[in-house]
């Protein structure tokens, strides 16, 4: 990944970031839009209302994916520095985003081990019904299943092959409820988080429609993005 910054016009800062792989670009896009904004420490103050345009480039895609931001707060810091809070917006031009999504789908079309193409996500999720449960992160999503990481030294006892599973997320169209069962697990290692994968069951028409909208990033929740997960009987009882 490489980046350059330019001042294209008065009151606008344009930052260009290059990604070698479309999956890395899309993962950072969903991370940025999902958290809704960012706070940066700088040596120079910017007026509130200054427009940021983050151009995300991939060598295989002609048009960049744009994330638009606006400075909403500037806080002076010691030693002449400033904390600048930028609020993100997905932007209106979907040309680059659709092209990146299509390139990912094209690259995965001939993978023999996967039935459905998947998109990379960086979506935090919590097991709300279990006290002291570790954070989960949805790392990829497809029509057929989902892959998750666990921020813990080991997988929780509830995560084992065959265990019923439910992922819920509130979208603009309503709540998406994706149920299935754990299909595989990986214990991770010294520098690798534990992971597991889930195969979805037969989804309700509403959830299937909402999943399609999320996979195309046409229907996204308001930030900050959050999801809920549960296992075992909790998941079974919540299935629609």
CATH architecture name of the largest domain: Beta Barrel
* Order of strands in the sheet with most strands: 7-8-9-12-11-10-13
CATH topology of the largest domain: Thrombin, subunit H
C-alpha Rg, in Å? 20 Å
Structural domain tally: 2
Enumerate the spans where pLDDT stays under 50 for 5 or more consecutive residues: none
H/I helix tally: 4
Topology as a string of helices (H) and strands (E): EEHEEEEHEEEEEEHEH
Strands, count: 13
Query: Helix/strand/pairing class, anyone?
Result: alpha+beta
**Mean pLDDT, rounded to whole units?**
86
Full CATH superfamily name of the largest domain = predicted glycosyltransferase like domains
Question: Beta-sheet strand percentage?
Answer: 35-45%
Shape estimate: globular
List the helices and strands and how they pair.
Elements: E1 2-9, E2 12-18, H1 22-35, E3 37-42, E4 51-57, E5 65-77, E6 81-89, H2 95-108, E7 118-126, E8 136-142, E9 145-150, E10 164-171, E11 174-186, E12 195-200, H3 205-215, E13 227-231, H4 232-238
Parallel strand pairs: 2-4, 7-13
Antiparallel strand pairs: 1-2, 3-6, 4-5, 5-6, 7-8, 8-9, 9-12, 10-11, 10-13, 11-12
Helix pairs in contact: 1-2
